[in-house]
Amino acid sequence: MAFDGLVMAAVREELNRIVIGGRIEKIYQPLAREILLVIHKDRTKYRLLISADAGKARIHVTKTVRENPLTPPLFCMVLRKHLEGGKIFGVEQPGLERILKIRVEAADELGILAEKTLICEVMGKHSNIILVNPSSNTILDGINRYSYATSRHREILPGRQYVSPPESEKQDPSIVTEDLFRSKLWNPSQDLSVEKILLNSFDGLSPQTCREIAARAGLEPDTGCQFLGELELNRLWSSFETIREQLRSGVFQPVVCYSDGAPAAFSAISLTHIPEACCKQGGISEVIDEFYSVKERREQFRQEAANLLKTLKNEIKKTGKKHSIHTLNLKKAADAEQLKIFGELITANLFQIPERTDTVELENYYDPEGKTVLIPLNPRFSTAENAQLYFKKYTKARQAGVIARNYLQETEAELDYLESVVTAAEQAENMTELKEIRAELIKEGYIKPEKPGPRGPKKQEAQASKPEPMKIKTEEGFEILVGRNNRQNDYLTMKLAQPDDLWLHVKDIPGSHIVVRSPQTAGVPDNVIERAAEVAAYYSRGRESSKVPVDYTLRKNVRKPKGAKPGMVIYDSQKTVFVEPKP
Questions:
Q1: Three-state SS across 7-47?
Q2: DSSP code per residue over 368-381
Q3: Nearest-angstrom CA–CA distance, 286 and 293
Q4: What does the pLDDT average to over 303-322?
Q5: Following DSSP, what letter does each residue of 361-417 receive, concatenated?
Q6: Is residue 424 left, alpha or beta, with left meaning phi > 0 and alpha meaning psi from -120 to 50?
């Protein structure tokens, strides 16, 4: 990622083409440090996004639709007051600074046209969006306000004079001569790499752009300047001049590059040091929008998955404590038989035991060796009453054991269910699957439903979509259906599958329900069963194992017990195959 001066120059060129002469129809502030201008020009509407977020500061046209707060923040209201209905007549960039000034002509409270300047500063943690009155150079407001207590260089407060960020001491690439370029790079006493010298010497270049200049010259970025000769200097100047020509002409080659399926970089120029297959070309706003949109979706996905897993692990911890309590109660109930024996021994020796004694030692005729046993007595009660007390304790303990056993079975079923949801959340591949898991947990009472806002529930949330299990087509024409969570599992097994379809599930561990649909009546061949079993093993808790047992049977042999949790079934007449998990 590199929103450098070249990227800002490319954005400036694009905005000069598409928004000059356009009117600002609407202004929104969807996030604390982000505004959105809806600009209308030539029967087309453009959504200009400006962000001052430290990690995502940028400016570009976007196609992403964002939800706006019901009550606009103060800065948004200030912008609406001064800019809504205004006409954009200029977009300027000082040199190659990461600063863009949008000049707007709008009517004030008296209907008199007046100029305002919206300044976007893309500078990492110092990024800001500032509205300035250019006639007096005073700040009307800033999305990030601060005083001299925060910054010694300037204040960003309403009524203060606008002061530009400190100017860089680096050279402007557009006016650099070849001799100056060579003098910066060729210095045998410097123990710096080509990348570092370019970065420290010339304005508007990010480390990524400096690496690209070195790569186009056939050099490694970490090549020491002391090793540069005439040939290397000529090549470096040639690649530097190529980028300068793009800057002068305003014709850029924007790209967004991916690594392992995730956006890794974007640039206003082509990046030859990154494999071409990993890069996608487009307009500058298009590549920036794609880069941040994909990153935001992935971040939202990670955050949602983390929230669900945190909830599930807390529930597993609470249920585990209940399991321990029920296990202890069951153990106590198992000791109840001794109470019954005490009562029977006291009754058998009723007339031989002295009254009002606190202990008695009697022969235990239940013991094969005939040993004696010491029985505690309550001297406040008679011998017969002590026997009855033991019988009552025995009856109470036995009843508690039955209750504890039932609770223990319920708790174990709940733990199995929660573990299955954890597996589904850990292996979810998109937001739709996570939303289905959240909806399931809300329905089961583990998560409180969100209160509907003043505008009511969202349409997509109000209407529950039909589960869509994953589909895999085999070379033989068979269709393997995979339930990716318990909601999909229930739908796949109990509604979608036919009685004679083949049904698979990993043995004794959480995992997906798998159904094989046959295009023929001759049954499913062994190689298809093995392939389906490999998929079942992959979408289970046993994914990292080398061999996983997978049960398979006909769907008609699968049943859902009354009151069972989502995804919980029982089955019989199964066979088992051992396979290696494969996606």
A1: HHHHHHHHHHHHCCCCEEEEEEEEECCEEEEEEEECCEEEE
A2: TT--EEEEE--TTS
A3: 10
A4: 94
A5: EEE-TTSTT--EEEEE--TTS-HHHHHHHHHHHHHHHHHHHHHHHHHHHHHHHHHHH
A6: alpha
Cα separation of 74 and 290, whole Å?
29
How far, in Å, CA of 279 to CA of 511, rounded? 36
Task: Establish whether domains 5-142 and 173-285 are of one fold.
Answer: no
Question: Helix 284-334 vs helix 336-348: angle between axes, to the nearest 10 degrees?
Answer: 10
* Spatial separation of the C-alpha atoms in residues 502 and 529, rounded to whole Å: 9
Q: What is the pLDDT of residue 463?
A: 44
d(CA 267, CA 435): 34
Overall CATH class of domain 5-142: mainly beta
Query: Could you give the CA distance from residue 174 to residue 196 in angstroms, rounded to a whole number?
Result: 19
Q: Which amino acid is at 396?
A: K
Top CATH class, 173-285: mainly alpha
- Evaluate the CA torsion angle 185, 189, 195, 196 in order and state its sign: negative
Predicted confidence band of residue 475 (pLDDT cuts 50, 70, 90): confident
As a whole number, mean pLDDT of residues 347-361 equals 87
Residue 189 confidence class, pLDDT cut points 50, 70, 90: low
- Specify whether the CB–CB gap between 359 and 376 falls below 8 A: yes
Tokens 């120029």 belong to which residue? 269
User: Which of 143, 273, 163 minimizes the C-alpha distance to 218?
Assistant: 273
Residue 537 amino acid letter: A
Residue 329: phi, psi to the nearest 5? -65, -35
Angle in degrees, 0-180, between the axes of helices 194-201 and 178-185, rounded to the nearest 10: 130
The DSSP secondary-structure symbol of 121 reads E
Q: What is the DSSP letter of 171?
A: B
Q: Count CB neighbours of 66 within 10 A.
A: 14
Decide: 58 and 124 in contact? Cβ < 8 Å.
no
Dihedral over Cα of 81, 82, 87, 90: its sign: negative
Is the confidence at residue 503, as pLDDT, over 50?
yes
Q: Which residues of 452-474 are buried (b: 16+ CB within 10 A; e: fewer)?
A: eeeeeeeeeeeeeeebebbeeee
The pair of three-digit structure tokens given for residue 435, joined into one six-digit string: 């939303």
pLDDT of 462: 37
DSSP 483-538: --SHHHHHHIIIIIS-TTSEEEEESSS-B--EEEE-SSSS---HHHHHHHHHHHHH
| DSSP secondary structure letters along 253-300 | --EEEEETTEEEEEESS--TTS-GGGEEE--HHHHHHHHHHHHHHHHH
Pair 421, 447: CB distance under 8 Å: no
Query: Coil, strand, or helix at residue 294?
Result: helix
In whole angstroms, give the CA distance from residue 482 to residue 473.
Answer: 11
Say yes or no to pLDDT of 459 above 50.
no
**Tokens found for residue 174:** 């557009």
Q: What is the mean pLDDT of residues 136-142?
A: 96
Delimit the domains of the chain by residue range.
5-142, 173-285, 326-465, 470-579
User: Mean pLDDT, the chain, as a whole number?
Assistant: 89
524 and 502 in contact (C-beta within 8 Å)?
A: yes
